[in-house]
Design brief:
The complex is a heterotetramer of chains A (154), B (326), C (281) and D (344). Chain A has 154 residues and is α/β, with parallel strands linked by helices. Chain A has 5 helices and 4 strands, in the order αβαβαβαβα. Chain A has a 4-stranded parallel beta sheet, sandwiched between helices. Chain C has 281 residues and is an alpha/beta fold. In chain C, a hairpin with a 3-residue loop joins strand 3 and strand 4. The N and C termini of chain C lie far apart (44 Å). Chain C contains 6 helices and 15 strands. The chains are: A alpha/beta (154), B alpha/beta (326), C alpha/beta (281), D alpha+beta (344). Chains in contact: A-B, A-D, B-C, B-D, C-D. At the C-D interface, strand 6 of C face strand 4, strand 5, helix 6, strand 11 and strand 12 of D.
C-alpha cells in the first residue's frame, strides 16, 4: 500500500517534456536552424526538425500524423513571403495554412500547438525565439491528448 | 411539376433524336412516390421514364466523369446547386463542357422524405404537388397542405442558387426564393463561440459516429480524384482503424481537400447515414475564405482558379510574429 | 487464464517463426527457409497448400509453401519482390523473426488421383514455387508415380528459380525429364527458346498423364489451350489460382470466385471445376 | 408467456444492468441506435430499423487481434485479455436476429473465429417482434416471420399497447427470467387473445407492403447466367461506390486486416471492409474487379447466389436499411426485381 502511493507521487512529479516537430524549409528556415546551432543560440533540445524542400510541401496530413504519433506541438517554418527559393511556394503556404490553422482551431485544437512562421537563413535569433516560445506555450498547455492516437506508445 | 416533367421528356426527345446528344442523364421514379433516382437514357423509346418532381435531389453532374468515357455527348438535367458542382468539375478539368448540354431546371427546393416520415406523413401517400411555399400531399386518407420549408431538405431551406448558373437550355422560369436568412454563417458562429474544449467535444462526438462508408466523399461533386488518399493503404498513409484519431484525420483531410472548391451543395450531410453535420466543416472554410480573400465563388466563376491554388502578394498574413530580428 | 492466453487456437494469430537462411534465386526472387525458433517445422501441410507470412507492422500476405512436406525440419517460401510485404521481406536478414500461420487451402491430390500416373508439370517464372513442393514430394516417393515431365520457362535464364533442382536434382532422377525454355534468345543459352505454351505444344506430350500447371495468369490461360489442343481433357489438368486474401480461412470475403473461396476451396482447382466458375480472376 | 407493463420497464432495466451490460434502442438527436442504457436513455421501441444494425455487437467495426512488438530481429506477439462482461441487447428485431444466424454460418464454421465466438457467447438477445411493418420492410420475402422468435433468441417479446409480452426461448432466457422474478407477471387469457388478434391483423398489413411481391426464389437462372447477365451494366450505373449499404447491412461480413505501427510496438486489427471499394481486391499485380459494375455485381451475387450455394440461405434478411440509406436509392430490392425475383 505504502509502496504504491509512493510510486504515484513519482509519476506525478515526472516532468512533462513536450515534443515539437518542426517542418523547416530547406533554403531558409533549415539554414536558420543551422546558424542558430553554430552560433550557439539557445533553443530546446526536444525539437525534431524535418527538412522539407519548401514550406508548401507540408501537407496537412503530415501535421495531423505528427500530432497523432507523438508531437505535442508542430512548427512549420518557411522563407519570408517574397523570398521563396521557388518564387511563389510560400504564398501558397500562407493561404493554405491560414485556412488549415483556422480549421484546426474550429475542431478544438489549441492554436498555440500549431505555429507557422517565416524564418530566413540569417534569422538564427528568430529561430531560437520561435522555438522557445512554442515550447513554452505547449508546456503550459500540457501534453497533446486531443489528436493523439490512443494506440500510439511513447 | 408535371409540366416540367413533360418539358424534360420533350427536350430529351428532341436532342436524342437529332443526335445532338447520345445520352441523357435525368431522373426516373423509383419504388416509392417519394423517391426519384438517377437514370441514364440513350434510347428515345425509354424517355417516358423521365420525370421531374420534388424528390430529384441528387446532383447528377458527377456521373459525367464516367459517362463521358462511354459516349461523346451528354444532356444532363441540373438544378441550381448541381450547376455549381458541374462548373467546378469543368474547372477541375474532369469534364469537358463542350461535350455536355446542360438543361437547367430552376428549383423550389426538394422535399425530404425522412422529415415526412418523422411526422408519419408517408403512409398512404399517392402524390405530392408543390406550388411556391406550399406542398400538397395527396393521400389515401385525403389531401393535406403543408408548409414547404418545414419539409425541405436542410440544405434547401436557405438555398442561395435556386436557378442554374450555367445552362444550354432553361426549363421553366427563374425562381426567386424567400430567403429570410440574416446571417449565412449563423451555425458556424455558434460553434466558433464555444471554447476550444467545447468545440473539441462537439466535433469528437460528431466524428465518433462516422462509420467510414465514404458516402460523403463519393457523392461530392468536387471529390473527383482518380485515386483517393483514403484508398491508399500503404502503412501510415491512411488507416481504417476505428479510433478517434483516424476519424479526425478523415474528416479534417476530407474537408481540407475540398477547401476552396466546395460548392456548398450540402450533399455530404444529406447522404451521411449517421447524420454527421459534415457541411459545417466545409462552411467554416467558406466563411474564412469569404472573410479573408473576399467573395467566395466556387462553382460560379470558371475562369478564375480556386482560392487555394491562387495567391496574391498582399494576402493577409496571420503568421508573422516578430518582424526582422536578425 | 487471466492473461487471456486460453489454450484454444485463434486461427488469425500467427506463430513466431525464424528465417534460418535466405537463398537468392534471381534478382527479384529469394527463397526463405523458415523454422520454429526452437527448431523444426511450424506445422504439417500437404503439397500445394499455402501459409500466411506476417511481417508486423507492414502486414501479411499469403504464399505457397515451396518445400515438400517430406522435408521434416523446415519450410521454404520462394518469394518474388512485387508489393509492400514482399519488398519488406526481401530486406530482412537471417535470424529475423516473422509470423506464420496456416496451412491454408487444399492441395494437389498426390495421394489420390495422381498415384501411379505419369505427371506433367508446367510452370512459368515464380509459378514453380507451388509445383516444386509437389515435384519434390513425388521425387521422395518416386515409386508411387509414373514418368515425370517438367516444363519450366522464364523470361530469361537469369529468371529461372531453384536452379539446383532444375539443372541437377531433377534431371538426375529416374524416369524424369526436365524441359527448360526462355522467352527470348540470349547468349550462352543453348536450351529451347519460346513461350511455355508453344513449347508444350512442340513437345507433343501423350495424353495418358495428368498435367499440373502454375504460372502467371496469361501463361496458364494459353497453356490450358495448348493442352486442350494436344487432346488433354479438362479433368486431367490441375492449376492454381490466386486472389487477394486477408484471413486465409474463407471468412473475410475477398478471394471468392463465384461461390468458391480461393483460400479455402483452392488454390488448387481441376480445370473442369474452373469451367463452372464465373470469369473473374 | 409473461408480461410487464411499460411503466415498470425502468425497474427492469435497472435489474438487468446489475448483471449485464445492457443495450437498448434509444433516440439521440433523432437517430435511433443501440446504446448503453442509462437513466436518461430515450428508449424507443417504435422505430423498427435502428440506424446501424446490431451486428456490431458481435462483429465490431474494428477490433484488435493482438499486439506486437518488433525490436531488431525479435518479434513478440501478445494476445489481448478477453472481455468477460456479459451483455444483453434488448429489442433486436427478428430480421436482425436472423442476420446473427447468417453471420454464425460464416464465423462459427471451422476454423472457428474465436473473437466472434467469444462475443456470441457473452451476449444475450431479447428480441422484439414487429407489429407495424414499415414500407421498406421485406423480411417476409426471406421467410422471416416478424412475430416469431428466430433461432438464437433467448427471450422473445412483443410490445402491444401498454404491455410487453415476454416469452422464454432458451436456458439463457430462463435464467434471466428467474433473475427478474417479481417484475414479470403471467399473461392472462385475454392477453393471449389480444396477441392472436395482432397476429391476424399483421398478415393483411404485410400484404399491403410495397415490397410484398419480392421473392428471390423466383430467380431461376444459373450462377454463370446471372453473372454474365447484362442487367448489371444498367443497374450498377448509378452506384457511387460508397460503402453505406455494406456498413448498415446486418449480414455483410467482409473484413480487412491491417497493422497499426505505434512507434514502439503496434497492433493488428480487423475492421469492416466493403466489396464496393475499389481497393477491396487490389493486389500487387492487378485487380480482378476493375470497375464499379464488377464490385456491385459481387455484392449482390454474394447475397443472392454465392452465399445461398454455400449455406442454403439468402444473405439478406429484408431489413430495408440499404433501401433507406443508399444515397441514390439503388438497393437489393431493385436488383432482385431485375433478376426476375418477383411474384407477378
Amino acid at each position: 500500500m505504502f509502496l504504491e502511493s509512493k510510486e504515484e507521487v513519482i509519476i506525478e512529479k515526472e516532468e512533462f517534456k513536450p515534443l515539437i516537430v518542426a517542418f523547416c524549409c530547406n533554403w531558409c528556415s533549415y539554414a536558420g536552424a543551422d546558424l542558430a546551432g553554430t552560433s550557439r543560440q539557445n533553443y530546446p533540445a526536444n525539437i525534431r526538425i524535418i527538412k522539407v524542400p519548401c514550406s508548401c510541401r507540408v501537407n496537412p496530413n503530415f501535421v495531423l500524423r505528427a500530432f497523432q504519433n507523438g508531437a505535442d506541438g508542430v512548427v512549420i517554418a518557411g522563407c519570408h513571403p517574397g523570398d521563396c527559393h521557388y518564387s511563389t511556394g510560400n504564398y501558397f503556404t500562407r493561404r493554405r495554412l491560414t485556412i488549415f490553422t483556422n480549421l484546426l482551431d474550429y475542431i478544438g485544437i489549441e492554436r498555440e500547438r500549431l505555429k507557422v512562421d517565416w524564418i530566413s537563413a540569417a534569422e538564427a535569433n528568430k529561430f531560437a525565439s520561435v522555438m522557445n516560445e512554442v515550447l513554452e506555450k505547449v508546456h503550459k498547455l500540457g501534453p497533446n491528448r486531443k489528436l493523439r492516437d490512443v494506440r500510439w506508445k511513447r | 411539376m408535371e409540366e416540367i416533367t413533360l418539358k424534360t421528356r420533350e427536350i430529351a426527345y428532341k436532342d436524342l433524336s437529332t443526335g445532338k446528344v447520345d445520352r441523357v442523364i435525368g431522373f426516373a421514379k423509383g419504388d416509392f412516390i417519394y423517391e426519384s433516382n438517377p437514370t441514364f437514357i440513350s434510347d428515345i423509346d425509354e424517355l417516358d421514364a423521365l420525370v421531374w418532381d420534388s424528390f430529384c435531389v441528387n446532383n447528377l453532374s458527377k456521373y459525367l466523369i464516367n459517362e463521358l468515357k462511354d459516349v461523346k455527348k451528354i444532356g444532363i438535367f441540373l438544378k441550381g446547386c448541381d450547376s455549381l458542382g458541374f462548373n467546378q468539375l469543368v474547372q477541375d478539368n474532369k469534364v469537358d463542357s463542350d461535350n455536355v448540354l446542360v438543361y437547367g431546371v430552376p428549383c423550389e427546393g426538394m422535399v425530404d422524405p425522412n422529415k415526412l416520415k418523422k411526422d408519419n406523413l408517408l403512409k398512404g401517400l399517392i402524390d405530392i404537388k408543390r406550388s411556391g411555399e406550399k406542398i400538397l400531399l395527396i393521400t389515401k386518407q385525403g389531401d393535406k397542405e403543408l408548409k414547404a420549408k418545414e419539409y425541405e431538405y436542410d440544405k434547401c431551406i436557405n438555398c442561395k442558387h435556386p436557378n442554374p448558373v450555367v445552362y444550354s437550355e432553361l426549363l421553366g422560369d427563374y425562381i426567386t426564393r424567400n430567403n429570410n436568412v440574416v446571417d449565412d454563417f449563423q451555425e458556424i458562429k455558434e460553434i466558433e463561440a464555444m471554447n476550444s474544449e467545447e468545440r473539441f467535444d462537439y466535433w469528437s462526438k460528431q466524428f465518433s459516429k462516422c462509420i467510414r462508408c465514404y458516402a460523403c466523399r463519393n457523392i461530392c461533386p468536387v471529390c473527383s480524384c482518380d485515386k483517393c488518399i483514403f484508398e491508399n493503404y500503404e502503412p501510415g498513409i491512411s488507416g481504417k482503424g476505428k479510433v478517434d484519431s483516424e476519424d479526425q484525420f478523415f474528416h479534417i483531410i476530407r474537408a481540407y481537400h475540398v477547401a476552396g472548391r466546395c460548392v456548398d451543395c450540402g450533399e455530404c450531410s444529406r447522404v451521411c447515414p449517421e447524420g454527421i453535420s459534415i457541411d459545417k466543416l466545409n462552411r467554416k472554410i467558406i466563411k474564412d475564405i469569404t472573410e479573408i480573400y473576399g467573395e467566395y465563388d466556387a462553382g460560379l466563376n470558371t475562369s478564375k482558379s480556386s482560392v487555394l491554388v491562387n495567391y496574391e502578394l498582399e494576402d493577409f498574413d496571420p503568421f508573422e510574429s516578430i518582424k526582422g530580428g536578425k | 487464464m487471466s492473461c487471456g492466453c486460453n489454450d484454444y487456437i485463434d486461427p488469425l494469430i500467427p506463430q513466431i517463426a525464424v528465417i534460418k537462411s535466405i537463398r537468392t534465386d534471381t534478382k527479384d526472387v529469394s527463397t526463405f527457409i523458415v523454422e520454429k525458433p526452437e527448431g523444426g517445422k511450424c506445422f504439417d501441410f500437404k503439397p500445394g497448400q499455402c501459409a500466411m507470412v506476417s511481417v508486423p507492422p507492414i502486414g501479411e500476405a499469403i504464399f505457397s509453401i515451396t518445400s515438400s512436406p517430406t522435408e521434416k525440419n523446415f519450410m521454404e517460401f520462394s518469394i518474388k519482390r512485387c508489393g509492400k510485404v514482399t519488398e519488406y521481406l526481401h530486406n530482412l536478414e537471417v535470424d529475423t523473426e516473422i509470423g506464420v500461420r496456416g496451412p491454408y487451402g487444399n492441395n494437389f491430390p498426390v495421394n489420390d488421383e495422381l498415384i501411379g500416373k505419369d505427371l506433367l508439370f508446367i510452370a512459368g517464372g515464380i509459378g514453380l514455387a507451388p509445383l516444386r513442393s509437389v515435384i519434390n514430394y513425388v521425387m521422395d516417393n518416386r515409386d508411387a508415380y509414373g514418368k515425370v515431365d517438367i516444363v519450366y520457362g522464364a523470361r530469361t535464364s537469369g529468371d529461372l528459380v531453384h536452379r539446383n533442382d532444375i539443372f541437377k536434382n531433377w534431371p538426375a532422377s529416374v524416369n524424369t525429364n526436365v524441359h527448360l525454355t526462355v522467352d527470348r534468345e540470349e547468349d550462352g543459352w543453348d536450351g529451347n527458346v519460346g513461350f511455355v505454351p508453344n513449347y508444350v505444344k512442340e513437345l507433343k506430350f501423350e495424353t495418358n498423364k495428368v498435367a499440373l500447371v502454375c504460372g502467371p495468369p496469361i501463361m496458364i490461360k494459353y497453356v490450358l489451350l495448348a493442352l486442350e489442343e494436344l487432346g488433354f481433357s479438362k479433368d486431367q489438368v490441375y492449376t492454381t489460382l490466386e486472389l487477394k486474401m486477408k484471413c486465409g480461412i474463407g471468412k473475410c470475403g475477398r478471394c471468392n470466385i463465384g461461390d468458391k473461396y480461393v483460400c479455402k476451396d483452392g488454390p488448387v482447382f481441376r480445370c473442369d471445376e474452373i469451367k463452372q466458375l464465373p470469369d473473374e480472376y | 408467456m409473461k408480461k410487464i407493463t411499460l411503466d415498470k420497464l425502468s425497474e427492469l432495466y435497472i435489474r438487468i444492468s446489475q448483471e449485464y451490460d445492457l443495450f437498448v434502442p434509444s433516440d439521440e438527436e433523432g437517430v435511433v441506435s443501440f446504446t448503453p442504457w442509462k437513466d436518461d436513455s430515450n428508449v424507443d421501441f417504435d422505430v423498427l430499423k435502428t440506424n446501424l444494425s446490431p451486428k456490431s455487437f458481435i462483429f465490431p467495426q474494428c477490433e484488435t487481434l493482438f499486439n506486437f512488438k518488433s525490436e531488431g530481429k525479435k518479434l513478440s506477439i501478445e494476445r489481448l485479455k478477453n472481455d468477460e462482461n456479459k451483455f444483453l441487447i434488448f429489442g433486436v428485431r427478428p430480421c436482425d436476429v436472423k442476420a446473427f444466424h447468417l453471420l454464425d454460418n460464416v464465423f462459427l464454421r471451422e476454423p472457428m473465429d474465436r473473437l466472434y465466438e467469444e462475443k456470441r457467447n457473452r451476449g444475450t438477445i431479447i428480441s422484439m417482434g414487429c407489429i407495424e411493418p414499415e414500407d421498406t420492410c421485406f423480411c417476409n420475402s426471406f421467410n422471416i416471420d416478424p412475430l416469431c422468435a428466430q433461432k438464437g433468441v433467448d427471450v422473445f417479446t412483443l410490445k402491444i399497447k401498454n404491455n410487453i409480452f415476454w416469452k422464454v426461448e432458451t436456458q439463457k432466457g430462463r435464467d434471466l427470467t428467474v433473475m427478474l422474478s417479481g417484475l414479470l407477471e403471467e399473461a392472462s387469457e385475454d392477453d393471449l387473445k389480444e396477441i392472436e388478434l395482432v397476429k391476424e391483423s399483421l398478415n393483411s398489413k404485410l400484404e399491403e407492403l410495397p415490397y410484398f411481391n419480392i421473392d428471390p426464389q423466383k430467380i431461376d437462372r444459373s450462377l454463370i447466367e446471372l453473372f454474365e447477365s447484362n442487367v448489371w451494366d444498367e443497374i450498377s450505373k448509378s452506384c457511387l461506390g460508397c460503402g453505406s449499404c455494406t456498413y448498415v447491412c446486418p449480414t455483410c461480413h467482409c473484413y480487412d486486416i491491417q497493422d497499426y505501427d505505434g512507434g514502439k510496438g503496434g497492433e493488428r486489427f480487423r475492421c469492416w471492409d466493403s466489396c464496393m471499394y475499389s481497393d477491396f481486391t487490389l493486389m500487387a499485380h492487378g485487380n480482378p474487379r476493375t470497375t464499379q459494375k464488377e464490385r456491385f455485381r459481387q455484392r449482390f451475387m454474394h447475397k443472392l447466389v454465392y452465399y445461398p450455394n454455400n449455406f442454403n440461405e439468402y444473405a439478406c434478411v429484408g431489413c430495408g436499411r440499404c433501401v433507406e440509406k443508399c444515397p441514390v436509392n439503388m438497393n437489393i430490392v431493385k436488383v432482385i426485381r431485375e433478376l426476375g425475383g418477383e411474384n407477378k
